[in-house]
Every structure is written in structure tokens, then in C-alpha cells.
Specification:
2 domains; 7 helices
């Protein structure tokens, strides 16, 4: 499995995710992930499967470098974080955030129209 450590790190850096966040999402410790990325630990089949399913990574690419990195377009991590935060807000704050977002879109559109 030469090269898999580089491909795992490549996925993580492409998605702009810290080792802590990446490892949390595949149920391993950040220390273990660091050891894998350094090539000091072997990657278990379970970890390969979790990376493939959690991040939509093409398993053939992860194992052998064949094909595209992603099976489907990569997840939008910022959008996922925003949705998680939004779900935690009370209704009045959700309404406020929606109104502010609409205002930002209006400003953005006005700026684009000026160009």
C-alpha cells in the first residue's frame, strides 16, 4: 500500500480539514492519523472504508492511485459546518441569520451589477 499515506493526506488537505477533524469523522485518534500520514502505521481496511464512505473518496484511487480522487463531488465542508451551527440556534436567531444572509446576498448582487 505504498503511497496510500500520501493520498490520505492529499484528501485531507484538499478538503482543508485538520487532522483532528478528519480523524474524528473516521473514528480514529489524531495521533493514529498522524502516524498513518507519516507512514509509521499500516492503514486498516476499516479505515480505508470509512475514508471512502465519509468523504466520497474513490476506493481504487485511495488504494492504488487509479481514477479520480472522489467518487462524487467532494462535500462542501463549510456548508456542513454552517448547517450544524444553524441547527443549534434558537428560532429567533435562525430568523435573524436568514435575514442577515438575504441582506448579504443583496449587497453581493449590487456589487456584481456595478462591475
Amino acid at each position: 500500500m505504498d503511497g496510500i499515506k500520501e493520498r490520505i493526506k492529499q484528501v485531507r488537505t484538499f478538503l482543508n480539514i485538520s487532522q483532528r477533524e478528519f480523524s474524528k469523522r473516521i473514528f480514529i485518534s489524531p495521533t493514529l492519523l498522524g502516524e498513518i500520514e507519516l507512514g509509521n502505521r499500516k492503514v486498516k481496511d476499516r479505515t480505508i472504508l470509512l475514508i471512502s464512505t465519509e468523504f466520497n473518496v474513490n476506493k481504487d484511487w485511495l488504494l492504488n492511485g487509479d481514477g479520480d480522487m472522489f467518487s462524487v463531488p467532494p462535500p462542501d465542508i463549510q456548508l456542513e459546518k454552517l448547517i450544524d451551527i444553524f441547527k443549534q440556534l434558537d428560532k429567533p436567531l435562525r430568523d435573524y441569520l436568514l435575514e442577515q444572509s438575504k441582506g448579504l446576498l443583496k449587497i453581493q448582487k449590487e456589487n456584481i451589477d456595478k462591475e
